Amino acid sequence: MTKNSFPKDFLWGGALAANQVEGAYLEGGKGLTTVDLMPTGKKRWDIAIGNVESFEPMEGEFYPSHVAIDFYHRYKEDIALFAEMGFKALRVSISWARIFPNGDDQEPNEAGLKFYDDLFDELLKHGIEPVVTIAHFDVPIHLVEAYGSWRNRKLVELFETYSKTIFKRYKNKVKYWMTFNEINMLLHLPFIGAGLVFNEGDNKLQIQYQAAHHQLVASALAVKACHEIIPDAKIGCMLAAGMTYPYTCNPDDVYKAMEKDRESFFFIDVQSRGEYPGYAKRFFKDNGLTIEMEPGDEELLKNGTVDYIGFSYYGSRATSTDPEILKQISSGNVFASVENPYLEKSEWGWPIDAKGFRITANQLYDRYQKPLFVVENGLGAADVVTAEGEVIDDYRIEYLRKHIAAMGEAIQDGVEMIGYTSWGPIDIVSASTGEMKKRYGYIYVDRDNEGNGSLNRMKKKSFDWYKNVIATNGENL
Ligand code: BG6
Description:
Blueprint lengths: L10 E5 L2 H4 L20 H7 L22 H15 L3 E5 L2 H4 L10 H16 L3 E7 L5 H7 L6 H17 L5 E5 L9 H5 L9 H26 L4 E8 L2 E3 L4 H23 L4 H9 L10 H7 L4 E6 L3 E3 L3 H4 L17 E2 L5 E2 L1 H15 L3 E5 L17 H19 L4 E7 L19 E3 L11 E3 L1 H11 L6
Parallel strand pairs: 1-2, 1-12, 2-3, 3-4, 4-5, 5-7, 6-8, 7-11, 11-12
Antiparallel strand pairs: 9-10, 13-14
Helix pairs in contact: 3-5, 7-9, 9-12, 14-15
The protein binds 6-O-phosphono-beta-D-glucopyranose.
Keywords: Glycosidase, Hydrolase
Pfam families: Glyco_hydro_1 (PF00232)
Organism: Heyndrickxia vini
């Protein structure tokens, strides 16, 4: 075990997203969002990729975001538990539709602004640094209906207004920001990532990359505004990371793996380096895509580069050019990946690869030479409450122990790291499946996939383990 690799002010903590925890989906003046239209079950996936039948919740479906884990009403109790674990930081997102219920309202909604004021005060009272994502998957539904969401340039202006509103309001409370959660998700789950809905005959790739351009410009404008309004703040991007391995050393496989990684790096290359990379221009040309830019966009991108690279890491990916190997695309993973015979998988089929975490962190740092912030990592598992009323989640401890150790190695490799906020420190709704059963927490929430349960909170075995990790600054794993 390595010793003393974590910086002394390392931000240990956990990460949440408004749509997966808050519930209260129409309380306090909040408007409907994309995620409020995503039920659990088979339909969810179809909607996530942009096949949307209705802009209202449908009869007979269960919508997990509507109550979620009721964080909106219970955040004080939850934050007290995070404080007991010794959290230095909590990553949350602001729901755009709490601040601007329709997304294009003239005035912000005071009740929504007040909710986050109170939430940040509660965190600060416990000495917990708020780390805030401006957009974590939930687009106000009115923007989807009225403008076609991010396919429309109008969203850039609306997002800028929203960002400036929250920067001004929370400038004395929030010093760590991120623009778009997992911005590369737009290419994989376009409705979740960007509120994109497709019609028959749409050139999906064209729409996705145009929407990506709009998000990239919006991100750059938010970075610029943040630096002007809160000069002592840091603002980052957020990538769904995980290196793609070539299945063999056949150069065709190696090249394909590089291309797969570039699909994701494309976003961060623009957000961190401030310009479209050459390989993207070639990709657009080869695929007959034309990205409409406005005069001044290039300069905006150049001047709106991020301060740090936030990323999520759950596991690595693998690819091949061999049609036989390609038949074993692993199930359950948002990023299509061939099965890696060297790795175990989670119950949901996600590859488990702690060494890949070290590799990915090194790869990102080598590429961008900016501090990294691990803002998501963890194991989704179906915990069982024993007859004694306990959750003995040794498998989770094992996963986290290996990943935190790998992160420590990366730091010793010279990678600058701001902090580590593990995903879902309290059980929350799964983004991809909508289940409650897929749990990541140190704290168990009594609620099932159908919405039954008291919503009571209970510490799991991992609670004390993580508390000790934080108390020893990562020495006792
Ligand atoms: C990331 C998202 O994709 O992974 C989170 O930023 C999400 O919102 C997390 O919850 C884990 O995925 P899932 O599908 O297990 O909830």
